[in-house]
From TrEMBL:
Residues involved in ATP binding: 392-394, 416-421, 506, 521, 532
Described purpose of this protein according to its UniProt entry: Catalyzes the conversion of acetate into acetyl-CoA (AcCoA), an essential intermediate at the junction of anabolic and catabolic pathways. AcsA undergoes a two-step reaction. In the first half reaction, AcsA combines acetate with ATP to form acetyl-adenylate (AcAMP) intermediate. In the second half reaction, it can then transfer the acetyl group from AcAMP to the sulfhydryl group of CoA, forming the product AcCoA.
Domain Acetyl-coenzyme A synthetase N-terminal stretches: 24-81
Protein name: Acetyl-coenzyme A synthetase
Organism whose genome encodes this protein: Alteraurantiacibacter aestuarii
Binding site for CoA: 192-195, 316, 340, 529, 590
Length: 654
């Protein structure tokens, strides 16, 4: 393989795909030159209750800043994901659920089944006083009830706020408080790789210190664990849905009414509640799911089996486990477990078991499986596979080649989809029938997306083959609309760095063919196993420990996780900087935030490199963490250049 490997579109793909190269060019040009016309047509993929007459009302400029799409139209996204498919596809599987333990019973919910469950649960929400415009917190594992709860919220116009089931009680409590929800949906326990996760106990703990307004906790009985129920607050899901009606008419929702909030980490402060609305987001998920995965029924009308392995706690699960595939009447596989349980063949066994045609996963999982050797893959068939997807972080060419050659046996195009929680769905990605592939490049923009590169310091637009900060020049329907409760922070975070443009936080290179190569975050966000972690959040958690005086956290390269977490810690005077304390701090962070924030390295530092004005020079800390110590750059502006020598001498991994 050369560095410049290119994999052209096969003629079979070019001749049969929804979008071929010529169609891509034509549609892309139209989407930019005539956005009103393009989106007026594209939005017809959803059923509208009151058709919109307005299409695009957006400005990234400070004086008339605002983002709205289709804003005089009304619709219901739950009806778009369910009701409209019933007549023709009522008995088609909507969700195939594969449990953590392969010997346990799986579940297949047809569109009729899912519709009934959603209507029943929507009535439960109503009976518990949830009204349109309210927020509902969902803290569930990967079980069908998670999709049911989401769609039930959408049905009655309540916004869901899903908190990943791996987050700690502390993190959960903070998120419940921030969006002021009065109701939490959870399960007795989650199951991952045979391990039990005490979800209900976590909720109980979260509600002890936070979220005192929560008056109802609805609990799915999943593992059957014996858990305490607070009679005045807690109810069982199965009892509640059995008690009510199975009929629930979908509410009429304005296109710009909130659909959900999802918390994500930024470079400063607490996680932000990314707010998405209904119409534009629905159009974006449905469109990108169809085009990126070439998703449509087989010639005989049956569904392609589609599997996105992301958790519903992340935006990928929102857009590509639930809303995109179901809006398109698809069959979405939902997997409760992990790639290495009971063994490293699990993903490929599931693909064979259900004849999965489209598989979408994160590079971190692929890297972890790759190092176990090809045998776990090649002992399975995988003949059903047609398209492979990658998401969440840059995929290194080595992992790309392995995915392509070993998993896909050179038959399956890889769609390396670049996007963000904020963007709602795919922004830069190959299309299987249209785009020649280059391993490691997310390639070219989705319809309506205008990526550009700017000089990070000057903010000027850069032309041609070059590298810079990645911005988007104009709005697209799936764009987030606000940060919940802090619209000013929304503007400041994304539109003030480079005025008039949306700043992604990513660095990027563009090659001579106009392909985009994401190089990673250029702000203080690190990407651990495809999950975003704010260095500031980990620092805040560390300094809460009584023995920590100061902490600085940076990313470090990590073979499997992409990036790991490297923490420099200054302890309070008189502390014994022992290995025991190191372990204690690691546990402390896990407890404060959750296992995904586990520091990989803790280095005790008597002092941190600071400028004379007291600002920590992270550049130096990053270099040391990367083990790139030959070129630390200019250290003469440091208040005390001596601290660097100490940091170098005491590197735990040196
Ligand atoms: C950040 C967004 C995409 C949804 C899941 C993560 C990085 C994402 C890619 C990719 C290179 C990628 C970026 C981005 N990222 N996809 N295909 N190639 N980098 O969403 O948690 O909001 O994180 O993930 O750095 O800014 P998120």
């Amino acid at each position: 393989m050369s560095d410049n490997a290119v994999y052209p579109v096969s003629s079979e793909w070019a001749n049969n795909a929804i979008i071929d190269a010529a169609t891509y060019d034509e549609k892309y040009r139209r989407s930019i030159e005539d956005p009103e016309g393009f989106w007026r047509e594209e939005a017809q993929r959803l059923d509208w209750i009151k058709p919109f007459t307005q299409v695009k009302g957006t400005s990234f400029d400070q004086q008339d800043f605002g983002i709205r799409w289709f804003w005089d139209g009304t619709l219901n996204l739950s009806a778009n994901c369910l009701d409209r498919h019933l007549e023709t596809h009522g008995n088609t599987p909507a969700i195939i659920w594969e449990p953590d333990d392969p010997t346990s019973r799986n579940r297949i919910l047809t569109y009729n089944d899912l519709h009934e469950q959603v209507c029943r649960f929507a009535n439960v929400l109503k009976a518990n006083g949830v009204t349109k415009g309210e927020r509902v917190t969902i803290y569930l594992p990967m079980i069908p009830e998670a999709a049911v709860a989401m769609l039930a919220c959408a049905r009655i116009g309540a916004a869901h706020s899903i908190v990943f089931a791996g987050f700690s009680p502390e993190a959960l409590g903070g998120r419940i408080d921030d969006c002021a929800s009065t109701i939490v949906i959870t399960a007795d326990e989650g199951l991952r790789g045979g391990k039990r996760i005490p979800l209900k106990a976590n909720v109980d703990e979260a509600l002890e210190h936070h979220a005192r307004d929560v008056s109802r906790v609805i609990v799915v009985q999943h593992t059957g664990a014996d858990i305490p129920m607070d009679e005045s607050r807690d109810v069982w899901w199965h009892e509640a849905i059995a008690a009510g009606s199975h009929i629930c008419e979908p509410e009429e929702i304005n296109a710009e009414d909130p659909l959900f909030i999802l918390y994500t980490s930024g470079s400063t402060g607490k996680p932000k509640g990314v707010l998405h609305t209904t119409g534009g987001y629905g159009v974006w998920c449905s469109m990108t799911h169809e085009y990126t995965f070439d998703y449509r029924p087989h010639a005989d009308g049956s569904n392609q089996i589609y599997w996105c392995a992301a958790d519903i706690g992340w935006v990928t699960g929102h857009s590509y486990v639930v809303y995109g595939p179901l809006a398109n009447g698809g069959t979405s596989l939902m997997f409760e477990g992990v790639p290495n349980y009971p063994d490293f063949s699990r993903f490929w066994h599931i693909i064979d078991k259900y004849q999965v045609e489209i598989f979408y996963a994160a590079p971190t999982a692929l890297r972890a499986l790759m190092r176990e050797g090809d045998d776990y893959v090649t002992r399975t068939s995988r003949k059903s596979l047609k398209v492979l997807g990658s998401v969440g972080e840059p995929i290194n060419p080595e992992a790309w080649e392995w995915y392509y050659n070993v998993v896909g046996e050179k038959r399956c195009p890889i769609v390396d989809t670049w996007w963000q929680t904020e963007t709602g769905g795919h922004m830069i990605t190959p299309l299987p029938g249209a785009t020649a592939l280059k391993p490691g490049s997310a390639s070219r923009p989705m319809f309506g997306v205008q990526p550009a590169l700017v000089d990070p310091e000057k903010g000027t637009l850069l032309e041609g083959a070059t590298e810079g900060a990645l911005v988007i020049l104009d709005s697209w329907p799936g764009q987030m609309r606000s940060i919940f409760g802090d619209h000013e922070r929304f503007f400041q975070t994304y539109f003030s760095t480079y005025p008039g443009m949306y700043f992604t936080g990513d660095g990027c290179r563009r090659d001579e063919d106009g392909y985009y190569w994401i190089t990673g975050r250029i702000d203080d966000v690190i990407n651990v196993s495809g999950h975003r972690m704010g260095t500031a959040e980990v620092e805040s958690a560390l300094v809460l420990h009584p023995k920590v005086a100061e902490a600085a956290v940076v990313g470090m390269p990590h073979d499997v996780k992409g990036q790991g977490i490297y923490a420099y810690v200054t302890t309070v005077a008189g502390t014994d900087d022992s290995d025991e304390l190191r372990r204690e701090l690691v546990q402390w962070v896990r407890k404060e935030i959750g296992p995904i924030a586990t520091p990989d390295v803790v280095q005790f530092a008597p002092g941190l490199p600071k400028t004379r004005s007291g600002k920590i020079m992270r550049r130096i800390l990053r270099k040391i963490a990367e083990n790139d110590v030959g070129n630390l750059g200019d250290t003469s502006t440091l208040a005390d250049p001596g601290v660097v020598d100490d940091l170098l001498a005491n590197r735990p991994h040196a």
